[in-house]
Amino acid sequence: MSAAHLLATVLTLWRVAASPALTERTRLVAVAAARSGVPASLLAAVCWCESRLGSAPLYASLCGVRLGHRYVRDDAASADIAARSLAGLVRRCGSPAAALAAYRVAGVCADPRGAAYATIVLSTAGRIVRAAGAGGGL
Prior knowledge:
- This protein is an all-alpha fold.
- Helices cover 63% and strands 3% of the residues.
- The protein is built from six helices and two strands.
- It has a two-stranded antiparallel ribbon.
- A hairpin with a 2-residue loop joins β1 and β2.
- The model has no long low-confidence stretch (mean pLDDT 91).
């Protein structure tokens, strides 16, 4: 999914105001997803759930990424790290749901503590795919 298509989908789905910052964050997510082989809809869903793609009044990290006990404040780094992490977790855990649970709880595949998070993110990704039409992919 292109950055422009992802941005249009986000604007349509959540009726957020278009801004240069949201446009840039959406571009970062699309680029990071493509570079890591992760569906843009899945990475965008993670970043939406974590920070409303940076549009939440206060957010610690675009995609909820922490290194050690500190959030990664740089949006590009957050998107890249999240995309690489998700790609590795999907390979290791075997499914997006198990990978998302692991993403939420620091790497344990299908950890039940991350099950609700996985459900929310997958639902959000599904909404993105449906709103995007055929080009969405999950």
